[in-house]
Each structure stands twice: as C-alpha cells, then as structure tokens.
Amino acid sequence: MTRDSSASSLIVGGAASSPRAPLPTLPPLALYIHIPWCVRKCPYCDFNSHTASPVLPEQEYVDALLADLDQDLHAVYGREISSIFFGGGTPSLFSAEALGRLLEGVEQRIPFAEDIEITLEANPGTFEQEKFVAYRKLGINRLSIGIQSFQQEKLKALGRIHNGDEAVRAAGMARQAGFDNFNLDLMHGLPDQSLDDALSDLRQAIALNPTHISWYQLTLEPNTVFWNQPPVLPEDDTLWDIQEAGQALLAEHGYAQYEVSAYAQSGRPARHNLNYWSFGDFIGIGAGAHGKLSHPDGRIVRTWKTRLPKDYLNPEKSFQAGEKALTNDEMPFEFLMNALRLTAGVESRLYPERTGLSLESLAEGRAAAEQSGLLRVEPSRLAATERGQLFLNDLLQQFLN
Description:
Layout: E1 29-35, E2 37-38, E3 50-51, H1 58-72, E4 81-88, H2 96-109, E5 112-122, H3 129-137, E6 142-148, H4 152-158, H5 164-176, E7 182-188, H6 195-207, E8 212-217, H7 225-228, H8 236-252, E9 256-259, E10 262-264, H9 271-277, E11 281-285, E12 290-294, E13 300-305, H10 309-312, E14 320-325, H11 331-339, E15 346-347, H12 350-355, H13 363-371, E16 381-382, H14 386-390, H15 392-397
Parallel strand pairs: 1-4, 1-11, 2-3, 4-5, 5-6, 6-7, 7-8
Antiparallel strand pairs: 8-10, 9-10, 12-13, 13-14, 15-16
Helix pairs in contact: 1-2, 6-8
C-alpha cells in the first residue's frame, strides 16, 4: 500500500456505529508529534522509542511528518490547533532548525490559536543552553523535563542517562532560556525506595519551582526489561504511605492535584493533556502516533500510525496503520476513561456535546457506580469520589458493554 492509499481501507474493528446525533460543536483540536528516538531505552519504558543512531534522519523525518499531516488535513478543514505536544522518545535530540522547519510547515497547513501551548519533552542528559534558547525563539513555550528521580542510585536502577546534578541544572537552564512554564516528571514506587527517598525527590522538585509536576507510580509493563526481570519494589503499605505523604506535601506547597498523577500551580494545568482528558480531538503524526477526530455527523474515529521508524520512513508503506470508528456501545467507556481521571471530573453536559449521545446512555452504569460509592451523586457533573479515584478501574468497569 502506498502513502496515497485511502485510509478507509484500513478500518479495524466491529460493525459501524448506529446513527447518533450530530455534534453541536466540534471539540478543541490538538496536535501530537512523535519523535521516536532516544539515547538509550529505559528498562521500564513501554513507549514507542528506539535507540538513536549517531546521525538522526532529521530532514527525512520532518518531510515524512508533514506528508503524514497532509493526509489528515481533509478531516480538520477550517479548524485551528489549540496545543502541540512533542513526545517521544526524546524530542530534544532534534535540532532547533529541524523543529523550526516542522512548526513552520504545520502552521502553513493549519492555523495556530493565538494562545497556543507548545510543549517539548526533554531529558536532562540532552540539555544544551544554546539549543533551548533557540527552541524558545521558535514559539515552543512549555517544557516537560523527564527527571524521574534526583538520587543517583535510583537513576541508575531506572537506566537514566543523567545524574541528579544534571537534573537540577536542567530546570535552571530551562528558566534561563525563557521558559516560565515547565513540568518536571517524577516517579515514585521505585526499586527499594523508602518514604524518605520519595519525599526527598519531591522536595527537590518543589524547590526548583516548576509550574507543574507529574508524579506517578512506577508500574511494570509488558514488553519491557522490568517486566521480564522485575526489580524489588516497595511493599503496598509503603506505596500507600508515599502516596498520602506526597500528595499532602504537594498541596502544602501550592501544587493542586487535578488529575490522577498531575499537580499544578494555580492556572498552570497542562492544556494539551486537559484536552485528552476532556475527550477533545487530536491529530497524531509520527511513528506510532495515535489520534482521535470527531466529525460533524457524529462519527468519532481513532487512528494509529505505522509504528517502526524504518517503516514510517519507507515511501512504499502507508503512514496510517489503522483506524476505528467508535460505536455507541464503546462511547461511555471511551469518554469516561479519560474524564474520570480528572479529580473534579467534567460537567455532565460535556458528554452529549462530545459524543452525540444522551446522558441516558450512561444511566445504568451511573446508578451502579453511585450506589457503590465510586461516582459522585451530582447530576451536573461526572466525577469520581475519592474512593472512585483509588479504584478507577473498578469504576470504569460499570460502563463496559
């Protein structure tokens, strides 16, 4: 199949959805750009990332990304992009020149919102002051820095290429480069981690005054080194103590939890991620990227792109690996698996606005979830209780058909 082939021949899944109401308005539109290369694959990582060769194919990959975007344009005509997220891999391995050409090409194809948020993932081991000054001049206005820990023995266990001092310097360099909005990624529940270890990492992160902290528990995922060779992780009681004490520490220093693993200073949530969690739309371009697009007639389609970089760059292969139109039966779970991650949930009206289905389609699952104490009894909102946040999978099971 060539890249000019129709994506309609790639539909995967069951029967087409029965008719649903046209969407009154289309949701915000974001763009996710996947850069799949990193210096070294971490043993816990299940993302589509690949060890980089000494010379990255920047020119060819940017050309492919723009050609990939061209094939999605018909589905987003007349819309603008509210946020862009460069994920990976390690996008900061790419030069400012390459990212600048890419952003220029994207904006020539789809207009940017005036207040667009553009986030770049970066690892401390790839920080160069001059490069990040150049990134900022391109219009990239938010960084997400993959710290994971500040402690050398923990970083070594995680296979990270940086040390604690480099992690601290990275935050300082980000600010010096003009980034007044940046996230620090931290993990807890690390091999042999104690409560004091975890809180020490959090205190160091807070001292660097990021606008946002993503603080999430290490999980062992299939197809990773850790899955096949599991490290010794903290006991459940220790994990619980870490979670409780860490949340209290973050709140004490002005980081409000607004999602399962996201904490932000006032007015600084990640807008791109909020769009995901609110069932917004996003184009996904790049090797293995996923997308979700709504259509005025009520169709909502998820897409995924060719996973391996060598195949993605092969002109004889298609960028798109598959797509699936969501059915009415799938819609409640698809909507709520995102929305219920938000601590405040979402307004109930968002469900019919974003899915084209009535709230009645949630009635049975909603009643069961409320009765079990997992969902708030609040007609105007769809939100998990504190217990529901702790047992989110159990809550979502109520909406599986």
